Amino acid sequence: MKSKKWSQYTRVKYPVSSSSLHPFNFFVPIVERVQEGVVSIVTEDAPHSKNMDSLIRSLMNEEETPSTTERSFGSGFLFHPKGYILTSEHVIGKSKNIYVKLFNGRVFEAQRILSDRVRDYAVIKIDADCKLFPLPLGNSAHTKVGEWVISVGSPLVAIEVKTSTI
Q1: 40: burial class by Cβ within 10 Å (0-12, 13-18, 19+)?
Q2: Cα separation, 153 vs 19, whole angstroms
């Protein structure tokens, strides 16, 4: 394998909007290229009782506990223009409600399509009324040991979920 000098990598022109990009910031253009395909995920579920006494009381209707929800946060990415999203199964688990926030700030309720607890992946779908930016799936057969990998996730963001009771 022919060796390249480090300076050959630093002279590459990256298509990036940032004019102050340092020559060694290789990951900035990658993140800017894929950020619209990465989504934030918030799930809601009934809280798990950690106290056995409160669980028994609630089953016997002795003490009415207020109905609150537990929220979990994660990320995923769009892989199909019709709104299919790949995420980890542990992100959505057995949650009752799944919400997805796109890069543009819009929030959609998602439905579970497929999940595999053993392999820890899940596919969810949103019905968006806007243009989506899916990312291509890679092929591990084209990778080599020692190659750099970057994982782009969505930072923890607040998703306002409005629910109404009738």
Answers
A1: buried
A2: 24
Q: How many CB atoms lie within 10 A of CB 51?
A: 8
pLDDT digits (tens, 9 = 90+) for 23-64: 777 788 888 889 999 999 999 887 665 566 665 666 666 555
Those residues with Cβ within 8 angstroms of residue 41's Cβ, 6 or more apart along the chain or in another chain: 73, 74, 75, 76, 85, 87, 91, 92, 98, 99, 100, 101, 110, 124, 154
Domain ranges of the chain: 24-136
Domain range 24-136, CATH architecture? Beta Barrel (2.40)
What DSSP designation does 96 have? S
Whole-model pTM: value is 0.70
| Cα–Cα distance for residue pair 1/45, rounded to 1 Å | 53
The CA distance from 47 to 8, in Å, is: 55
pLDDT for 143 equals: 86
128 forms beta bridges with: none
Q: Look up residue 153 and give its two tokens.
A: 């996730």
Closest CA to 32 of 146, 140, 123, 133: 133
